[in-house]
Design brief:
Helix content: 10-25%
Strand content: 25-35%
CATH topology of the largest domain: 60s Ribosomal Protein L30, Chain: A
Largest sheet: 4 strands, antiparallel
Structural class: alpha+beta
Shape: elongated
CATH class of the largest domain: Alpha Beta
CATH architecture of the largest domain: 2-Layer Sandwich
Oligomer: single chain
Number of helices: 6
Number of strands: 18
Radius of gyration: 32 Å
């Protein structure tokens, strides 16, 4: 029985040693010039990109960031943050735009150092008297502990991160957006908002950097939100002076004077609604204000890029009262954004007004080359208000919604 137990013990030890010696590509502790990041399941893409960079004459490699659960493709690593920032700042000046960023990584020690298999003593006879360790054994134990201390002092951890953003001068924000399915970069618009004051700071496109003004609110909180109707809405909040890294879905990192925010975007799908908050109407009229055209052009672009897409345009009002309605003269009238005396005036219900407003949105789409059979209109009046008609938020009841019914 003792022989069987001894054999089983030896097999278990050998198996454990084999598992411990399996190489896991974890990044060593340090500061990295990062060029791309991939999910661990997409290692083949990381390898292809590394080979592509090497073909361009760029020294590149990749490794696993255990804390972010991402494969990091990098071109260089540094022992200090200041070294990394100086090198990458130089690269940014050479390339003309910041396509690389610093990633600070502290090894999680998931790759174990290869060690010899432990020696298990042969079972001793029962009732054996324990012996006092000899001086030689004591010296070995002491020597081994000293050696362990020396090895520990050789491991250099990264320095503590400095203030993420340098506020000695200009501060920049770089927004990266990718199609979640294909991983390809996309250029779409974003809103940058002073969160506490709900004040719009900027409307930058993705895949570029811009100077970020300091918010005037005490909290200094900023929200970056997607502003393209063809993609599901996403937003991310962070503090101006102290960006917080969220490793779950959005990758936020810093390079000296630049904060990088990465969004993985998902296209709008069948059954989903898009609220056109930037489409405005004149009072009691189915005539749009000129500033509405920006968002309408996004609808046109969405439908042209998805030829099978069909929609229902829903119109809503604040309240159910009937009254005067100012509308276009006829179907040939394309003066969508100009309230003048040449329009027709009629009486009607709130449902009629909301239907006329949905109709003018559809007619604008037609004027831009979208076939009439790709959209329907529906007026709801005040049947589906979001807020009480007397509340401070009542203006949001007046809206147009796009429902995707076929894709």
């Amino acid at each position: 029985m003792k022989k069987i137990l001894l054999a089983a013990t030896l097999i278990a030890c050998l198996t454990a040693n084999l598992l411990a010696n399996v190489a896991v590509k974890e990044l060593p502790s340090g500061y990295y010039m990062v060029l791309a990041a991939y999910a661990p399941s997409a290692e083949n893409y990381a390898i292809k990109y590394v080979n592509y960079l090497k073909g361009k004459g760029v020294e590149a490699n990749y490794g696993l960031s255990q804390t972010k659960n991402l494969l990091i493709v990098y071109s260089a690593s540094y022992s200090t943050r200041s070294e990394a920032i100086a090198a990458i700042s130089s690269e940014r000046e050479r390339a003309g735009e910041p396509k690389a960023w610093v990633h600070v990584y502290k090894s999680q020690n998931i790759v174990q150092e290869e060690k010899p298999a432990p020696v298990h003593p042969i079972a001793e006879p029962e009732n054996k008297v324990e012996e006092t360790p000899t001086s030689t054994e004591e010296e070995i134990i002491k020597e081994d502990s000293v050696q362990t201390e020396e090895l520990a002092t050789e491991v250099k951890e990264p320095e503590e991160a400095e203030t993420p953003i340098s506020h000695q001068g200009k501060t920049y924000l770089f927004i990266e957006a990718y199609d979640a399915k294909s991983g390809k970069p996309i250029v779409i618009d974003f809103n940058v908002i002073d969160l506490a004051r709900q004040k719009l700071i900027a409307t930058p496109p993705s895949q570029g950097s811009f100077e970020l003004a300091e918010p005037t609110s005490a909290s200094k909180m900023i929200q970056v939100q997607s502003n393209d109707i063809g993609w599901q809405k996403q937003s991310f909040d962070f503090k101006y002076y102290e960006p917080i890294i969220d490793p779950m879905s959005i990758f936020l990192d810093n390079l000296g004077d630049t904060t990088f925010v990465k969004f993985e975007m998902t296209p709008i799908r069948k059954g989903e609604f898009i609220t056109l908050y930037q489409v405005f109407f004149y009072k009691d009229a189915a005539i749009m204000m000129e500033k509405s055209e920006y968002e309408l052009k996004q609808v046109v672009e969405l439908m042209k890029s998805n030829p099978k897409l069909k929609i229902v345009i829903h119109g809503h009002t604040n309240g159910k009262a009937a009254g005067k309605i100012i509308a276009l003269k006829d179907h040939d009238d394309v003066d969508f954004f100009n309230l003048n005396g040449d329009h027709r005036e009629l009486e009607g219900t709130a449902v009629k007004l909301s239907a006329e407003r949905a109709s003018i949105v559809g007619r604008y789409l037609e004027s831009q080359g979208i076939a009439a059979n790709r959209y329907e209109v529906k007026g709801w009046g005040g049947k589906k208000m979001l807020y009480d008609k007397h509340s401070s938020q009542a203006r949001y009841n007046v809206r147009v919604e796009i429902e995707v019914v076929e894709e």
